[in-house]
Amino acid sequence: MASVFSMTGYATIQSAIASGQLTVELRSVNSRFLDLTLRIPDDLHSLESAIRETIGSRVKRGKMECRLSLKSETLGATSRLSPSALTTLASLQGEALKAFPEARALSVSEILSYPGVLTSDTVDAEQVSKDVLDALNRALDAFLASREREGAALAKVLLGYCDNIEGIARDIASRLPDILAAMKSKLEERLSEALTQALSDKSSLTPEDVNERIRAELTLYALRMDVAEEINRLITHVNEVRRVLTAGGPVGRRLDFLMQELNREANTLGSKAVAIEMTNASLDLKLNIEKMREQIQNLE
């Protein structure tokens, strides 16, 4: 069976890039379309368009949040002390100590935190862009894998509901002849009593007229109460649900349409119910269909 994907997913990765430590976090819930929210640091805002394009090429539906955070490396292989800044700072400290002899001299950490004391080689913007998008794609790999796992679990649940619906439909189909026969017998008895009473009341009807009327009413009743077509269509729609799930891919909208068709047949079955067994079957069908519809809302 090919993969189906849930719209619920999560992934987070960390990656060392030229300008620091990058964290990429992706999460999503269900939505009719792709609704993407980006939360990225100012240093990476120039990549917003490329980030949206990368995500849009791999994710089609879901309310999704992409959060990037960058922890810049204060001290690294490219960090350098600025002699001019140190000279300026030493001069300022000397003047301050002359004015305030009791003052404490600056510590190493205070010196290093002074603006301009630490400098670094210029970071290659093109390399940063490549590193960020590479990290994003790795995060997307993990994110889509989580959606695939969730989708597989949902597909298994949906196939279980398919079995339930087909079982209910086939059970009614097997019992339908007995149900209709019992109802026809009762109807025939009632019609016979009513028409026999009409004959006794000096009606113009003949016994042949009475029998013909009974046969006509029974035929009309059988046609009106026959649900064989509805049962066949229920099973056909269930098999189509199975086929769509097996084919995989973006199945959500197609399955949502099939739920409407299944619900229509279940309602028709209920409207034609002539026995408590058929009424209960219609209710059971609609309950299973509604549970399927709820699960399908989470599928891409």
If you had to describe this structure to a student in words, what would you say it looks like?
The protein is an alpha+beta fold. It is built from 8 helices and 6 strands. It has helices spanning 48-56, 83-99, 108-113, 125-200, 207-225, 228-247, 252-271, 276-296, and strands at residues 9-17, 20-29, 34-39, 62-71, 79-81, 118-120. Strands 1-2-4-3 form a 4-stranded mixed β-sheet, covered by helices on one side. Helix 7 (252-271) packs antiparallel against helix 8. The longest helix has 76 residues, at 125-200. The radius of gyration is 37 Å and the shape is rod-shaped. The two termini are 16 Å apart.
- CATH-scheme architecture of the largest domain: Up-down Bundle
Question: Total number of β-strand segments?
Answer: 6
Instruction: Give unreliable regions as ranges.
Output: none
Cα shape? rod-shaped
Rg for CA atoms? 37 Å
Order of strands, main sheet, comes to 1-2-4-3
Write the layout of secondary structure elements.
Blueprint lengths: L8 E9 L2 E10 L4 E6 L8 H9 L5 E10 L7 E3 L1 H17 L8 H6 L4 E3 L4 H76 L6 H19 L2 H20 L4 H20 L4 H21 L4
Helix pairs in contact: 1-4, 4-5, 4-6, 4-8, 6-7, 7-8
Summarize the structure.
The protein has 300 residues and is of the alpha+beta class.
List key phrases describing it.
4-stranded mixed beta sheet; 6 strands; alpha+beta; two-stranded antiparallel sheet; Butyryl-CoA Dehydrogenase, subunit A, domain 3; 3 domains; Ribosomal Protein S5, domain 2; 300 residues
